[in-house]
Amino acid sequence: MVLFVISGMLVSAAIFAFYYMSIPNPKKGSSDFSGNEVSSGSIRQPTSKISPQSAKFPSSVGPPPVRVELLELLKGGASIPHSRRFELIQSLVGELTLQERAGIYAFILNDENSESSLQLKNDLVALLVRQKPDPEELCSELLGIYYDFSISEKIRCIPVRHLADCYKNARDVEKDHIRQILDEAVQYHSSQISGVAIQSLAKLLVEQDGFSKKKIVNAAAAILKSKSPSPDSLASTLDACAKADMKELLPLVRTAAETGAGAVKLSAISALGALGDLEDRILLVKLSESKSKEISQRARKALDDLRKTGARKIHSS
Questions:
Q1: pLDDT tier at 24 (50, 70, 90 boundaries)?
Q2: How many CB atoms lie under 10 A from the CB of residue 219?
Q3: d(Cα 45, Cα 245) in Å, to the nearest integer?
Q4: Which of 103, 184, 186, 118 is nearest to 151 (CA)?
Q5: Which partner for 256 in 54, 101, 127, 260 could form a disulfide, CB atoms 3.0-4.6 Å apart?
Q6: How much is the pLDDT for 78?
Q7: Domain segments of the chain as ranges
């Protein structure tokens, strides 16, 4: 029975390679966030239909050496207590076998998208990214999840969140595909994917050379100004503004802190702590007196951040 299940997992993993092979190679045309010329058209979902029967692994693959810790994790899923889940994931850090990666991908692709399940799937993708040595297939496998339009958007967001970590070890063609995906994803303003993509771009801007801050700032501004943005995307974009020191968007951050609600307001308050000037203390002091415990605590933390960074008053003319 176990062998049968693992065989199905192998098939799922193989499909990712076929998806990736269907992605067109970049062609000269418009420029992406790194300033390089890429295809003038956005990357599309592969149109070819790949049947599980057509996905074959080398015959040299032997019996599936899947560790008991991973089997426990995949069987228990989101029902496993967080402390135990953390313990299991930490025990798996290192090099994963092909069969273990296949099992993880099969789990990620299931339809369960509760908050707890999504967190586990995110942790599993992080585990894949932290593998040593980094397998050559990793980027194509993660891109395969993004291009699987049969799964929920919340699950498709997960690999996008980790593309920045894959970028530094990716091959040149994979780097081109990652840039194109992020270029495409930030345009979906009504989807949470756009905010996740901006977060990845912000991380790449901070950690990698060759990315245009101006283009990333403009993309973030477009999300914040969108007429029908996703609240999750707005919150993620505000977090990205703080991470990448996008002071150019401070007026939009202030507006979100004043008029936003829920996670958007909380993210804007935190961003004010990272980007703001002394004049922002007036708003933050007011917010620190809010009846909402979350808002008041976040505002007090932002005030502390302002003091630590030694924010200066904007000189009036």
A1: very low
A2: 23
A3: 33
A4: 118
A5: 260
A6: 87
A7: 1-43+66-185
Counts of helices then strands in the chain (DSSP H, E)? 16, 0
Q: Which long-range contacts (C-beta less than 8 Å, at least 24 apart) are formed by 219-227?
A: 219/33, 219/186, 220/246, 220/249, 221/248, 221/249, 221/252, 222/186, 222/189, 223/186, 223/189, 223/194, 223/195, 223/198, 224/249, 224/252, 224/256, 225/252, 226/189, 226/190
Contacts of 212 (CB under 8 A, 6+ apart): 33, 34, 35
Interior angle at CA 10, CA 167 and CA 70, nearest 5: 75
Torsion, Cα 28 31 34 35, to 10 degrees, reads 100
Whether the predicted pLDDT of 311 surpasses 70: no
pTM of the model: 0.77
Residues 6+ apart with CB under 8 A from 143: 16, 19, 20, 23, 159, 174, 177, 178, 181
Long-range contacts of 120-125, Cβ-Cβ distance < 8 Å, separation of 24 or more: 120/73, 120/77, 120/78, 120/80, 120/85, 121/155, 121/158, 122/158, 122/161, 123/85, 123/89, 124/73, 124/89, 125/158, 125/159, 125/161, 125/162
Average of pLDDT values for 50-54?
31
- Residue 94: what pLDDT? 82
Tell me the H-state helices in 52-110: 68-76, 82-91, 98-108
CB–CB of 142/166 below 8 Å? yes
Is residue 44 within 8 A of residue 147, CB to CB? The reply is no
